[in-house]
Specification:
This protein is 39% helix and 16% strand. Strand 1, helix 1 and strand 2 form a beta-alpha-beta unit. It has a seven-stranded parallel sheet, sandwiched between helices. By secondary structure, it is an alpha/beta fold. The two termini are 33 Å apart. The protein folds into two domains: 179 residues, Rossmann fold (3-Layer(aba) Sandwich), CATH 3.40.50; 139 residues, Rossmann fold (3-Layer(aba) Sandwich), CATH 3.40.50.2000.
Length: 372
């Protein structure tokens, strides 16, 4: 696969004018979409790109969000994977996604495809792209979390040609693994958060807890213990508690059932637009659970995060994070700490960096013919 590696600039060495870059971006859950929505918006507005989205996984199950994305981005393909939240259906759905990706590639004939992060749905997409001999870009490559997502992420990175990472630690790991064409762009989620830097604090705490696929029953028990401590703290201190629906990983139905009972000061959010979520996070007293938002976006915003359990065990983090077991949540919440905003995961300008990298390569496009 020949890639023209010119200087990192919007202007190529050649005076030739190329056709727009046909790009397929794969999205499978609401978090990935929200974190990268500004990137998608920038690509759609730029005449240098011809953008198409493939939606699958949780985005397809979420009818409201699916319709919203489909209306906003007219060129979308939808892959209906047979996934019901079990490990068995997870395996079956990978075959469906791989097949659907092949169909989309045949119809759209992309110059390049983009895979994001480490969701299990991303691997069959990346595999299909690689076998179709289409260049693949991997965003959020080479990070570590400490669970099965690490295997997915590393497999996708091995299939990818260009790697866009959130921080220098990930870049160093990629180089140690023998990869090249690595760019430290930062995470696009910091771009979403930038407008909320310095927001005044409110009187609420966020709770976000996702299943741990290696121990589904144990993670449900862990969540119940942690939530009990958070509820007690909020009641004692007259603080509002905002609980968010978990990812649709195996075991998520059991966790959702635990949220049926709610105290008077609690609110449950099934779907919250990204802008509203990042505003709530920026104004939060703290965020508790095992979501990467506590380590990624919360660090950029300077919000205290209580990281519970092993789901983010190996994820690099800033000084805003207190890692603990479920039994230690109450003590961690009581701990006083001054948290300053951190640029570990980016400086709020990742979208421009990513667009620059995309335009660095010709992706084997044909120059436009000159017209008189």
């Amino acid at each position: 696969m020949k890639l023209d590696r010119g200087p990192l600039t919007f202007t190529r060495k050649s005076s030739k004018v190329y056709e727009p870059i046909r790009v397929i971006v794969f999205l499978s859950n609401r978090c990935t979409y929200e974190r990268h929505s500004l990137l998608l918006k920038a690509m759609q507005a730029d005449p240098s790109f011809d953008l198409r989205l493939i939606l699958s996984g949780g985005l397809v199950e979420n009818n409201k969000l699916r319709v919203f994305i489909h209306n906003k981005y007219k060129s979308t393909d939808i892959i209906l994977a047979d996934y019901d939240g079990t490990l068995q259906s997870m395996a079956r759905s990978t075959a469906t996604i791989s097949s659907g990706t092949c169909d989309a590639i045949e119809r759209f004939n992309p110059h390049v495809c983009i895979a994001i992060a480490d969701r299990f749905e991303v691997l069959p997409f990346a595999m299909a792209v690689a076998y179709a001999k289409v260049p693949l870009i991997h965003i959020q490559a080479f990070e570590r979390s400490g669970n099965i997502d690490d295997r997915v992420r590393d497999a996708v990175s091995s299939l990818a040609d260009v790697h866009l990472v959130s921080h220098r630690h990930a870049a160093m790991r990629g180089y140690d693994m023998g990869h090249r064409d690595i760019y430290v762009t930062g995470c696009p989620s910091t771009d979403r958060c930038r407008q909320f830097l310095g927001a005044p604090k409110g009187n609420h705490i966020l709770f976000m807890y996702h299943p741990v696929t290696t121990d589904i029953d144990g993670s449900v028990k862990e969540m119940m213990v942690a939530l009990g401590h958070v509820r007690g703290y909020c009641i004692e201190n007259s603080i509002d508690l905002y609980i968010f629906a978990p990812n649709n990983d195996p075991g998520y139905k059991k966790i959702r059932e635990s949220f049926i009972f709610r105290t008077q000061r609690e609110k449950f959010f099934e779907n919250l637009p990204g802008k509203q979520f990042y505003r709530l996070l920026s104004q939060a007293i703290m965020i508790v659970g095992n979501s990467s938002a506590g380590l990624r976006e919360a660090s950029y915003l300077g919000v205290k995060a209580i990281n519970v359990g092993l789901r983010q065990l190996h994820r690099i983090c800033s000084n805003n994070v207190i890692a603990c077991t479920a039994d230690q949540v109450a003590l961690a919440m009581e701990e006083q700490m001054e948290v300053a905003p951190s640029e570990l995961f980016g400086n709020g300008r990742a979208v421009g960096e990513i667009i620059t990298v995309l335009k660095r390569y010709t992706w084997e496009r044909k120059p436009k013919e000159k017209t008189n």
